[in-house]
Amino acid sequence: xxxxxxxxxxxxRTPSGRHAKPRPAWPRVAGRAVFLVVALFxxxxxxxxxxxxxxxxxxxxxxxxxxxxxxxxxxAARKIDTIFAEELSGPQDSPDDQLSA
Length: 101
Known about the structure:
This protein is an all-alpha fold. It has four helices and no strands. The chain has helices at 3-8, 26-49, 57-89, 95-100. The longest helix is centred in the last third of the chain and has 33 residues, at 57-89. The two termini are 21 Å apart. The chain crosses the membrane at residues 29-48, 54-73.
């Protein structure tokens, strides 16, 4: 399979090998809770100090860019892993096959 064909094909999140075990959910839950607490703290600080609410746009935009870039990197890594897995698992040509062709 060519690189372009592999990139055009959707990559499904089917864990295999040592990653087959389901990962625990507590890190995601803890991360979301920390994010919620920080977001509430920022909103409370802006409201308490009388700052303009527009100041919340910059951290929100930075967070959105960070989340998008991490998602893109993970997607690209999955596609590259798929390409390498297909290349490595392909049938190996023996020297006898090359001589008869």
